[in-house]
Amino acid sequence: MDERRLEELFRDSVRSVPPATFDEQDVIRASRRITARRRMAAAGGTVVAAAVLMGGVGVGTGLFAPSSSNLASTGQSERQQPASADSRTEGPGIMVERSGQCGPDAQIAAAVQAQLPEAAGVAPVAASRCPVGARAVSFVLRDGAAAGSVTVYVSPVGTVPPDQAEPGDGTRQDGTEQSVRKARSGKLVVVLSDPDPGSPAAPYGSRIAAIAGGVADQF
Q1: Are residue 141 and residue 193 in the same domain, yes or no?
Q2: Cα 23 to Cα 10: distance, rounded to the nearest angstrom
Q3: pLDDT grade, residue 115 (50/70/90)?
Q4: Is residue 21, in this structure, part of any structural domain at all?
Q5: Are 145 and 200 in contact (CB under 8 A)?
Q6: pLDDT > 90: what percent of the chain?
Q7: What single-letter DSSP state applies at residue 125?
Q8: 95, 87 Cβ separation under 8 angstroms
Q9: Strand runs (DSSP E) across the chain, as ranges?
Q10: What pairs with residue 141 in β-bridges?
Q11: Residues whose CB is less than 8 angstroms from the CB of residue 108 and which lie 6 or more positions away in sequence, other chains included
């Protein structure tokens, strides 16, 4: 192949190359965009570093800690809250449930019915004026002409009224028969037979001591 033929081939190949799709201005604009992105990335890193630094300074110096006045007011409000929302005091050393009732406790009910079979066919009900932490049950009963309720408490020592704080038997001025025994657990078992108004006597009043002793042996 001679030189003339080679020269013609080279000229043809140059003419077949497509024209460029960008010019000098396109290159300048692209360069500016890349530079702007790099600056924004650098600025973002600076902001993050500053935030971390401020957080460390705030924690170290107590800048962001709650004020002492807020802490004091919070502590004071907590101290002013009652010890128990479910209990209230009636007289020195006497605590009763705020609802005024507790029970009926199934285990105590079974123990009472074992000592007093006449209560076996009677549905147990809740006891009124229940000491804090006590378990209790009550039965509404009729004993011949006598009518009223027999109530049994198993209560922690120190939460019962003073007249129930020591083991023993007695009759109140309102005609209620009472028997107190110390349970195996150290708690107190209190049995009360309360006559209804107009009742000539308390129902099964003569048997509450045996009931108290039987329940005390089981609790």
Answers
A1: yes
A2: 25
A3: very high
A4: yes
A5: yes
A6: 50
A7: B
A8: yes
A9: 87-89, 95-97, 101-102, 127-128, 135-143, 146-155, 168-171, 177-182, 188-195
A10: 148
A11: 135, 136, 137, 152, 154, 215, 219
Q: Is residue 78 part of a domain?
A: no
Total of domains in the chain:
2
| pTM of structure | 0.56
Q: Do 142 and 200 share a domain, yes or no?
A: yes
Nearest to 100 by CA among 124, 128, 125: 128
**Which of 44, 61, 78 is at the close of a domain?**
61
What's the domain range around 31?
A: 3-61
pLDDT higher at 136 or 44 = 136
Any idea which residue has 């965009």 for tokens? 33
Domain assignment present for 169: yes
Q: Are residues 119 and 112 in contact, defined by beta-carbon separation less than 8 angstroms?
A: yes
- Where are the alpha helices (H) located in 62-145, listed in sequence order? 68-80, 106-115
Residues 105 and 212 placed together within one structural domain of the fold:
yes
Which tens digits make up the pLDDT trace of 167-207?
999 999 999 999 999 999 999 999 999 999 999 999 999 99
pLDDT higher for 109 or 16?
109
Q: Are residues 100 and 32 in the same domain?
A: no
